[in-house]
Every structure is written in structure tokens, then in C-alpha cells.
Amino acid sequence: MTENTIQTRPEAQPEATGAWLVAALYHFARFDRYESFREPLQAFCDENGIKGTLLIAREGINGTVAGSDAAISGLLAYLRAQPEFAGLEHKESRASKMPFLRMKVRPKKEIVTMGVEDIDPKRIVGTYVEPKDWNALISDPETIVIDTRNDYETAIGIFKGAVDPQTKTFREFPDWVKNNPGLHNKPKIAMYCTGGIRCEKATAFMKEQGFDEVFHLKGGILKYLEEVPAEESLWEGACFVFDERVSVEHGLKEGNHKLCHACRSPITAEEVSSPHYEEGVSCSTCYPTRTEDDRDRYRQRQLQIALAKKRGVRHIGG
């Protein structure tokens, strides 16, 4: 076995529904002991067959994990037993197969990286808006609606009429705000993101910048797609998710997007038929920005993935 492959192990079987339970969670809290909590949290997840990513920092916890119903229920109880996370909320969806390759618990400086000092949603934050009330707010002509996600996420779905900052990373968002004085032209700012964490932190930043009426979608797009019927929805497209499902749609059903493993961009079934698409090597998005040498490297990686699969092992890069 090479260093690029890992032996497959029998995984805990999902519940009788035939689907893995996926939990997206975050909680802002003063968590000074985050570094010492990494090892026991990793051990708990490993022992219960849970996979995904959890980020822990002095400002709290953030991540998405998947496992059996019993395992995820146990993890949530374990986290809420920590005094700092007693009020932790989460969102659930289903996956037809395990959507993560491994479990990672990572201590970080921020649980969602904005790169601005002293932004604290526990001290100042916008007004939460329930999914059932979101349509009325964003349909108000006095409201500017802002998507706080990155460009590869907004490319496959966005709320009707929303402003897309076209940011590559969340670190670019503060500068985008400062460079757009027109945001002050209307009294209300409504912000949203995938699960609620980025827009919550973004509202704290906006309040610090002097914006008064700032709102954010509670539970993010995921909660909206879960609770608001498709026939009443103002959501257009699919919602990018950070796991092997790639996207979800209304009712949190798995979407039809694939992931280009060369550039990590979501691609549609139509884009797969593009002459610039080659599995694991390129897509129409990244083809113009990669060299032939790059593509040759990706082809070698894709070959190793295929060979590992034949041998019954999983290639880490796959």
C-alpha cells in the first residue's frame, strides 16, 4: 500500500432509512479550551464511525459531519454537554452514501475566516429572520439582499434579486463592503449563506460599519430549502454543500451536480459533455487557467485513483 492510498474499512451501516444522517452545525461561544478539546472530540467521532470536518476555535465550533442516526445523536448530545455549546443548533439532511472520506477536527484561529479583528457575533449581530418570513423581507423594495458566499457557490444557485459580491473567499467580503458605498442607499440589508454562520458574522461586521437595519436568514439556505415549499420559494437553482453530494435542492434532496476535482468547482450534467471536461483533469471553468503540464499531473493522479479502486483501496486524493 502506498502513502497515497488508505485501506478501506467496513463502515457502520446507516439506519433503516438507507441514508446517512448529515448534520451541519455551528455555535459562537467563548471557548478558551478549544485546543485541549481537539483530541477527545476526534476520538469520540472515530469511535462512532462519524466522518466530516469540525473546526474549533476560541470563538466556537463549526462544521458538517455524517454518520448513523445513533452516532450523530450521540455526538450532538456530547457537544451540548459542554457548557460552552449548550445552546448549539444544527440542521439535518440525508445522503445516499457516506459523503466524507475521513474525520478531521481542526483547531483554528476563526471558525469562519473573515480576517477582521474583534468581530464578535456574541456582542453585536443582526436580526434573525425565520425562513417563513424571509420572502417578505427580500421582496421589500427597501431591502438590499446580499449573498455572503463565494463565487463557485453562487454560480449554481442564488435568491431572486440578490447581489452577488463574486468573492473568491470570505476574507474578501469586508473590502467588498467598503468599496460599495451604494449599500447605504436603502435602509435594510438582508444577508444569507449556506447554513447561517457566514451571514451571522457578516451582520456583526456590517453593524460595526454603521449599518443599522441588518438581517440574516436563520439556519441559512439549508433551513429555507427544508421549510419553504418549492411553489412558494424565491430560491433559484441548487445549493452548494461542502461534501461529496456537491449540491442539494428543495426538501434537501441531493442535487445533480458533480465536482471538478481539478478546481473544486461544481459542474452540471450539461457541462460534463463539454469538450473541456475530463474527469479529475479539467472542466470548462478551469481549462483556460491551467496548463497542459497541470493537466498531465491531474491525469496521473486520476490514473492512481482508478488503480487504487481496482485494488479495493481508497486513494486519498480521490
Automatic annotation (TrEMBL):
Keywords: Oxidoreductase, tRNA processing. It catalyses: uridine(34) in tRNA + AH2 + O2 = 5-hydroxyuridine(34) in tRNA + A + H2O. GO terms for biological process: tRNA modification. Residues 139-233 form the Rhodanese domain. The keyword tRNA processing applies. It is an enzyme of class 1 (oxidoreductase). SMART domains: RHOD. Its EC number is 1.14.-.-. It comes from the Bacteria. One of its GO terms (molecular function) is oxidoreductase activity, acting on paired donors, with incorporation or reduction of molecular oxygen. It holds the Pfam family UPF0176_N. Belongs to the TrhO family. Catalyzes oxygen-dependent 5-hydroxyuridine (ho5U) modification at position 34 in tRNAs. This is tRNA uridine(34) hydroxylase. The gene is trhO.
